Amino acid sequence: MSEIAKSDPNQSTEAVSAADIEIGAMGQRVGSLWTDAWYDLRRRKLFIGSAVVIFILLLFSAFPQLFTDHNPRDAGACQLMNSLKEPSSSHWFGYDVQGCDVYTKVIWSTRNSIVVGFSTVIMVTLVGGTLGLVAGYSGGWIDGLLSRFADIFFAIPLMLGAILALAVFDTGDAFTVALIMAALAWPKIFRLMRGAVIANKHNDYVVAARALGGGTFRVTVRHILPNAIAPVLVYVTISLGEFIAAEAALSYLGVGIQPPGISWGLMISDAQERFLLASHPLLFPSLFLSVTVLSFILMGDAVRDALDPKSR
Questions:
Q1: Contact present, 294 and 143 (Cβ < 8 Å)
Q2: Omega prior to 87 cis, within 30 of 0
Q3: What CA–CA distance (Å, rounded) separates 311 from 207?
Q4: Using CB atoms within 10 A as the burial measure, which of 8, 122, 287, 293 is most buried?
C-alpha cells in the first residue's frame, strides 16, 4: 500500500487508511478493537444464548401483562383455598402458601430484580467511572484524594453495609436498594477506570492529541475514554448478575424489597419453611434467579474474552 501511495501523490490518506483497514497482511479484514470484538461475539454460542435469555427477561420486566393475565397485587388474586396446590396445565407453577399463582408472581418479580440491577450499574458506572477518569488523568493530589476517599468505601463490605443501611431507612422500595448498593460498590469501577486511564494516557496518540492543541476534556473523552472503557464494560456486565443476586439476598433477609412489593428473594423466604411439604413455591423463583445471574455472568465472560486481544 505504501508503494501505491508514493506512485499517486494525489491519493488521499483517508483512502489508504480505509484500504489498510479492509485488507490486512494476510488478506483478512482488520478493524478496530470494537469491530473485532463484535465479530467475535456473534460467533460465540454462549453469548447468543445468554443474550436471548436476557432479552426474554427484559420483556418479562417491561411487559409482564403479555405473559400473564393476572396481577398478584389485585384484590382476589390470592385465594387460601388454593394454598400449596401442585402445578397443573392451567397453573404451570402451582400456588404458594397464600394461594397466589406462583407463575404470576415469578413473572412480575422480574421487574424489581431488573430495575435494581440496571439502576445500580448505571449509578456505579457514572460515579465510579467519572471519578476514576478524573483521578487517572489528573494524577497528583487529586488522584491521591479521590483514591483515599474510595478506600473508605472499600473497607465496608457490600452486604453488611447494605443490611445496616436498609435497616435504618426501612423503605423497602427498589430505588432505595439500588441507591445503597451503588453507594457501596462504586469504588470497584473507580479502580478499574483509574488504572485503565493511567495505562493509556501516555500513549503516542494521546501525546499527539495534546501536541495538536486538544483540551483536557477533548483528549479524555475522544482519545482516552474509548480505549479505557473495555475493562469497565466487562465488570458492568458481570456485576449486573451480582447485584440482582444481592437484591434477592437482601429481600430474603427482610431488608430489601418488602411487601406489598414482589421479589424472588421474598418468594424464596416465604416458601422455605414449607419446602418439604411443597417444593414448587421455592423451586421456580430460585430457578429464575439462578438462570438470570448465570446469563449475565456468561455474557460478561464472553465480552471479556472478545475484548482481550491476547485471548484470540
A1: no
A2: no
A3: 28
A4: 293
DSSP-derived 3-state class of residue 115: helix
The three-state secondary structure class of 298 is helix
Helix/strand/coil for 101:
strand
pLDDT in the model for residue 299: 92
Per-residue pLDDT tens digits for 218-255: 788 777 888 788 888 889 999 999 999 999 999 999 89
Consecutive H or E run containing 108: helix 102-138
CATH code linked to domain 32-311 = 1.10.3720.10
From first CA to last CA, the distance across the chain in angstroms is 26
Q: Where are the domains of the chain?
A: 1-30, 32-311
Alpha carbon 163 to its chain centroid, in Å, reads 21
d(CA 289, CA 177): 17
d(CA 166, CA 253): 11
* Local structure of 172: helix, strand or coil: coil
Residue corresponding to grid cell 501523490 = 9
pLDDT tens digits, one per residue of 110-123: 999 999 999 999 99
Q: How many helices and strands (H and E) does the chain possess?
A: 14, 0
Indicate the residue type of 130: T
CA distances from 284 to 101, 109, 205, 293 (A): 12, 12, 53, 14
- Cα 6 from chain centroid? 49
Query: CB-hemisphere CA count at 13 Å for 241?
Result: 21
- What gap in Å lies between CA 252 and CA 289, rounded to an integer? 12
- Sequence-ordered list of residues with C-beta below 8 angstroms from that of 177, at least 6 positions apart, any chain: 116, 162, 166, 247, 250, 256, 257
DSSP 86: P
Cell numbers standing for residue 147: 483514591
Using CA atoms, how far apart are residues 122 and 19, in angstroms rounded to an integer?
A: 38
Interatomic CA distance for residues 265 and 250, integer angstroms: 7
List Cβ neighbours of 223 (8 Å cut-off, separation of 6 or more).
205, 206, 209, 214
